[in-house]
Amino acid sequence: MIFREAQKDDIKQLMEVRLAVKENTLSNPSLVTEADYYNYLFNRSKGWVCMVQDRVAGFSIVDLAEKNVWALFVHPDFAAKGIGKKIHDCMLHWYFDQERDDIWLGTGPNTRIARS
User: Fold this and answer.
1) What are phi and psi of 80, to 5 degrees?
2) What is the model's pTM?
């Protein structure tokens, strides 16, 4: 596994991971566009990916402008391997190097993250 900052060429795979998750699914996937990913990654803040071979296994994106986690998802094929925690930690270390304000994360009810 390789953890690194997200790049423009990762966006299509980020979208695939987002659509593959079983929890906190999008009610209308067409509302979150490639342009949205680009905006959050390069205009509003930054993101990180976990690569397994040439595949994005998980990703996180923090929104510095709104002080929240815009995305934190792991593909179900790679669940329970510590990927979510590692990209979460990468994101928070970077965030708190930039900011001192609290950060928030919203999630759906009865998700694994809401229960933890």
Assistant:
1) 65, 35
2) 0.85
**b/e code 31-68 from CB counts within 10 Å (16+ = b):** ebeeeebeebbeebbbbbbbbeeeebbbbbbbbbeeeb
Is the dihedral angle over the CA atoms 51, 63, 20, 22 positive or is it negative?
positive
- Would you say 42 and 72 are in contact if contact means Cβ atoms under 8 Å apart? no
Question: Which tens digits make up the pLDDT trace of 93-115?
Answer: 888 898 787 775 666 556 555 44
- For tokens 């990913």, the residue is 37
Rounded to whole angstroms, how far apart are CA atoms 41 and 46? 5
Ranges of each domain in the chain: 2-115
Looking at domain 2-115, its CATH architecture is: 3-Layer(aba) Sandwich (3.40)
* Rounded Cα–Cα distance for residues 113 and 76 (Å): 14
